[in-house]
């Protein structure tokens, strides 16, 4: 099979879309699939501009997909199947046999009333563009969502349920695993060796709600003085988060900023717990939660449907981060228990359900059916 993969980001440049595309592609190559990847950074075909996407967002995305459409209008016959990630085809889709994977939707983001008015208005406008780009395509196009909520959002846009499949995010369980060098790794990142470490990984954006995370940890640290919150990731709210921590006077918070993908496994391995306060996610589970579970970390997550896997795997707790006092009390109570069983459960679930080998096979089945 000759497969073309089109995405606006690709490993090692990017995060969610980049990681899903890359890890599945690597597994497909092992199965004998000939993969060609087209993104602003290649590696096989370079179209569009990462800088343009970062600076102008939707306009940069539209520019990339317009270039894809123009470039492959005369070259699409070279490939048997095309895999597009979160496309914005405002003109014609040049591909006859096409699978579209949605890692999240602007439609779902726009429905969240907790965003500031300016952000919500932008997302709502983009959601109309997104809806048009996804619903005017040929009826033979298939869709997958990395979360059941994403699949429902596609239905709400007008796409028939029979054309939509749910395939979750995966994880490399050989790469993300428990390690015995916890103290050594903590020294590397200047993390207190004898503290209880709560790790949060991800972009600092509105949907991740990092301020609620800081507020709840403030409550936790009052009761558990030797607790430290480690936040790895950058984003539009990075400076505001740092200022908020300083102004609120929250102790024991370490902001690592961007951490290279190759360094993430050891960072998870040196933590005691994983914590995330998102108000919206596309993935079910998100990539960071998959990585944390594979690393054997008990998980403390917000009570949104994307994190239901925590209850299903019996590997942590779900809390309402909007109720700060209650959330703080619930987390403190949880941290004071022996949660070694949750650690074992997390790892076992990831191995049995989320390994990229399993996920790639699900995609392969759809490619064969297109």
Give the topology.
Elements: E1 2-6, H1 16-30, E2 34-39, E3 45-46, H2 50-56, H3 58-72, E4 81-85, E5 98-102, H4 106-110, H5 117-135, E6 142-145, H6 148-157, E7 164-166, H7 182-188, E8 196-201, H8 210-223, E9 227-232, H9 238-248, E10 253-257, H10 264-269, E11 273-276, H11 287-294, E12 299-302, H12 308-313, E13 316-319, H13 324-335, H14 340-354, H15 356-369
Parallel strand pairs: 1-2, 1-4, 2-3, 4-5, 5-6, 6-7, 8-9, 8-11, 9-10, 11-12, 12-13
Structure characterization notes:
- The chain is an alpha/beta fold and 370 residues long.
- Helices cover 44% and strands 16% of the residues.
- It has 2 domains: 2-170 and 355-369, 3-Layer(aba) Sandwich (Rossmann fold), CATH 3.40.50; 182-354, Rossmann fold, CATH 3.40.50.
- It has 15 helices and 13 strands.
- The radius of gyration is 21 Å and the shape is globular.
- The N and C termini lie close together (12 Å).
- The mean pLDDT is 95.
